[in-house]
Request: fold
Amino acid sequence: MKKIILASKSIDRSKIFNRLNISFEILSTNINESDYKDRYSDPFDLVKELAKAKVLKAKELLKNEEIGTVIIAADTIVEFKGKIIGKAQNEEKAFQILKSLANRSHNLITGIALTGVGDSKIIVDYDITTVTFTDLSDEDIRNYVKIEEWKGRAGAYSIRDRASLFIKEIRGSPSNVIGLPMHKIFKILKTEFNLNLFQN
Reply:
């Protein structure tokens, strides 16, 4: 079975693979994301380019790995009313983000990039999931922010944790909200890299 490298330090992405009992290794690429945010204002272009940059950096770092090792990279952003909402840097910013999303729908867009060690092809794709929050009081938001789930997460929340209390509706891939559209990854791995996750 081919080795899978997840080029991401995201805890949530790792949890997806662990939950599915798929063996993988983690590699952090430490790409400077702000360089790309200055260059790409379109959210779809931004996530795809960031995922591609991460997978290429990982490929460079893994050039001595076994031929056929598959690398998966991803980047997720929140898009609301045409604006890109990133990760909150502090509690006040997390509060503001969550207040703006309360009782409204927003889009979670994940860019993915897959390649293999010794393989010239790179497959880049994206997925979009629409999430609707219930109405939240300022007190609810402050109490949630104190839990610190917002740290390091696009949109300042974690759908798999306490934020599930205020998510009214999800339209699209549930795993995409956590940071990996697994239905697309499954298909790409199977058709492009001859790797069937059911056999892993």
Summary: The chain has a mean pLDDT of 93. The first helix runs from residue 11 to 19. The domain at 4-199 is CATH 3.90.950.10 (Maf protein). The helical segments are 11-19, 33-39, 43-61, 91-101, 138-147, 174-178, 182-192.
